[in-house]
C-alpha cells in the first residue's frame, strides 16, 4: 500500500468536516495546502478515513487470530484503534489467542465423552434449543418496549422520496417559501433545485454548478456549497461557497449574479425580509451587506477578530453576527461601529437567531451554553446551561405575538452534540422538554409552520418529528446517512432532509 501526505491530509480534512468541526477543517486545510493538491473531493466517498481505519483494524485482528497452521480463533474482545498500534498489546493478544486454542483442544477431548452421555439421555440438545428460543422472544419484546413511543409512527419507505444526484455530502437544504421546490447544497460544488410539486418518485432536478474563472475558462470550483437561502417571495436562491463567492440563481437554475468581495470561505448568508439585501459571513472575519439587484457590496463590517460563523437579520437594515472570537456584534447599515456588542460566551459562538419580533437574540456555543440577549441591557437575559456537549444550532418557534400563531407561547429549540434536543420557555428561562431518542450528535432542528411539531436530524441517520406540546415522538424515519439538515415546506406537510452519504430525501406526512 502506498499513499502520499496529500492523501492523508485530505482524508483528515474531510473527516473534520463530516464530524461537524467545520472551522477546524478550514484551518487544517489552509495549513496543509489542501487547495493545492490535485485530489477531486467530489469523488471521495463519505466516511473514507473511518472506512480505511476500520479495514486496517480488521486486518490487524485477522493477523493476530490466524495461527501458523492457518486455523482461526475468534477474538473475545475487539481491538481499539490505539491498541492496534501498540506492539505490546498486539503481542499480548496473540498470546491470549494461542492459549485459547490450546485450551479448546483440551476441552474438545474432554467434551467428546460428555456428548455421548448427553445424546443417550436425549435431553441436552432440546434444552439448549429451548433456551435460545426464549432469548429471542425476550429480545423482540425489549425492542418493542424501547421503541419510540407507543403512539409514534415509523414512516414507511413509500412515504419517503429519495433524491439521487449529489456526489458528496449534502450539508444544507431549504424549501422555497411559495412552492414545493427544495434546494440542496453539497460538497460536490453544486446546489440543486428539486421540483417536488407533483410528488414524483423521480422529480426533475436543476444542477447549479459553482464554477470559477481559471485560465480564461470556467471550471468547477471543487469547493463545498456551505449555505443557501431563498428570497422571501421564492423568486431567487442565494448560495454561499467555500470558494469565497456568493451567488444568486433563478428558479430555472440560471446564475443571475456573482458576489465576490470575501477573501475566503463563506459560512452563512441570509436574505432580509424585503428581499433587497443579502447578508453574508466569512472566514475573512468580515460580514457584508450586498445589494441583491446590482450584486455590489453595500457595506463591509470588520469588527470580529476571527472567522464570522453566522449572521441573522433583526430588521431590514440591522443584523447580528457571531464568531469564533466568542463575541456577538449587532450592526446597522450606514453605521460605522456596532450599535451593540455582547460578550459572555467562553468558546466559539456557533449560531445566533433573533426571535420573530426581533426583540430577543439567542446564541449557542461550544461552551455548552445557550444565552438570550436583549438590546435593552448589556448582559444576558438568561444563561441556559443544561446540555453536556457543544450546542450546534438553535431555532425559534413561529409562535407568540406578531406571528401567524399568536395564541401559542414562544419557545426556543436547541440541538447539541450530546444527542439531545431541548425546548425552552424563554420567558421563564426554563427547559420544557428534553428530547432524548437520538443516539448521535444532533445537527439540525426545524419547527413546523404552525409551531405544533419539531423535526430533528442527527448523525444516527434518523429524522424524528416531535409534538412541541407534549414532547412526545410522533413520527420517525431512518435514512442512509448522517443528517445535516431538516426543513419544512410552507404548508407543513413535507419534511426535507440532507445527509452525509450524498442523499436528499422528502418525507410526505399526509395521511400518516
TrEMBL record:
Residues 96-153 are annotated as: Disordered. CDD domains: WD40. It is found in: Nucleus. WD repeats lie at residues 163-204, 225-249, 259-300, 342-383, 384-434, 435-476. Residues 140-149 have a biased composition (Polar residues). Coiled coil: none annotated. Gene3D superfamilies: 1.20.960.30, YVTN repeat-like/Quinoprotein amine dehydrogenase (2.130.10.10). GO terms for molecular function: transcription corepressor activity. This is F-box-like/WD repeat-containing protein TBL1XR1.
Amino acid at each position: 500500500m502506498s499513499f502520499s501526505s496529500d492523501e492523508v491530509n485530505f482524508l483528515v480534512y474531510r473527516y473534520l468536516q463530516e464530524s461537524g468541526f467545520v472551522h477546524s477543517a478550514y484551518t487544517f486545510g489552509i495549513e496543509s495546502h489542501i487547495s493545492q493538491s490535485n485530489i477531486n473531493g467530489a469523488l471521495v466517498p463519505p466516511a473514507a478515513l473511518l472506512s480505511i481505519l476500520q479495514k486496517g483494524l480488521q486486518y490487524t485482528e485477522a493477523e493476530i487470530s490466524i495461527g501458523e497452521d492457518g486455523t482461526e480463533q475468534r477474538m473475545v474482545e475487539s481491538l481499539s484503534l490505539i491498541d492496534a498500534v501498540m506492539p505490546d498489546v498486539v503481542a499480548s493478544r496473540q498470546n491470549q489467542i494461542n492459549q485459547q486454542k490450546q485450551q479448546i483442544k483440551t476441552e474438545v477431548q474432554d467434551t467428546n465423552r460428555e456428548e455421548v452421555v448427553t445424546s443417550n439421555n436425549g435431553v441436552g440438545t432440546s434444552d439448549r434449543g429451548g433456551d435460545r428460543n426464549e432469548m429471542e422472544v425476550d429480545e423482540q419484546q425489549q425492542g418493542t418496549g424501547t421503541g419510540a413511543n407507543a403512539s409514534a409512527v415509523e414512516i414507511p419507505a413509500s412515504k419517503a422520496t429519495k433524491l439521487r444526484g449529489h456526489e458528496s455530502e449534502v450539508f444544507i437544504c431549504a424549501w422555497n417559501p411559495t412552492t414545493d421546490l427544495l434546494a440542496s447544497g453539497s460538497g460536490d460544488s453544486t446546489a440543486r433545485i428539486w421540483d417536488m410539486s407533483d410528488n414524483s418518485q423521480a422529480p426533475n432536478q436543476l444542477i447549479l454548478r459553482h464554477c470559477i474563472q481559471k485560465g480564461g475558462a470556467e471550471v468547477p470550483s471543487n469547493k463545498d456549497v456551505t449555505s443557501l437561502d431563498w428570497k422571501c417571495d421564492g423568486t431567487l436562491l442565494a448560495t454561499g461557497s467555500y470558494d469565497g463567492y456568493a451567488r444568486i440563481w433563478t428558479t430555472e437554475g440560471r446564475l443571475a449574479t456573482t458576489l465576490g468581495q470575501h477573501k475566503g470561505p463563506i459560512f452563512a448568508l441570509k436574505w432580509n425580509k424585503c428581499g433587497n439585501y443579502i447578508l453574508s459571513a466569512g472566514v475573512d472575519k468580515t460580514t457584508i451587506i450586498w445589494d441583491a439587484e446590482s450584486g455590489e457590496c453595500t457595506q463591509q463590517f470588520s469588527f470580529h477578530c476571527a472567522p464570522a460563523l453566522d449572521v441573522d437579520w433583526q430588521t431590514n437594515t440591522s443584523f447580528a453576527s457571531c464568531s469564533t472570537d466568542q463575541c456577538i456584534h449587532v450592526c446597522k447599515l450606514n453605521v460605522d461601529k456596532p450599535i451593540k456588542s455582547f460578550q459572555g460566551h467562553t468558546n466559539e459562538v456557533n449560531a445566533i437567531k433573533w426571535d420573530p419580533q426581533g426583540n430577543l437574540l439567542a446564541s449557542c456555543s461550544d461552551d455548552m451554553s445557550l444565552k438570550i440577549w436583549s438590546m435593552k441591557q448589556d448582559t444576558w437575559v438568561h444563561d441556559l446551561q443544561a446540555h453536556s456537549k457543544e450546542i450546534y444550532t438553535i431555532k425559534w418557534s413561529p409562535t407568540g405575538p406578531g406571528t401567524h400563531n399568536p395564541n401559542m407561547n414562544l419557545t426556543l429549540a436547541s440541538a447539541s452534540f450530546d444527542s439531545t434536543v431541548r425546548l425552552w420557555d424563554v420567558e421563564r428561562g426554563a427547559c420544557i422538554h428534553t428530547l432524548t431518542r437520538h443516539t448521535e450528535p444532533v445537527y439540525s432542528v426545524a419547527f413546523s409552520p404552525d409551531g405544533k411539531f419539531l423535526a430533528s436530524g442527527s448523525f444516527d441517520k434518523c429524522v424524528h418529528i416531535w409534538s412541541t406540546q407534549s414532547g412526545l415522538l410522533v413520527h420517525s424515519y431512518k435514512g442512509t446517512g448522517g443528517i445535516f439538515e431538516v426543513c419544512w415546506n410552507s404548508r407543513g406537510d413535507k419534511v426535507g432532509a440532507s445527509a452525509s452519504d450524498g442523499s436528499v430525501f422528502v418525507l410526505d406526512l399526509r395521511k400518516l
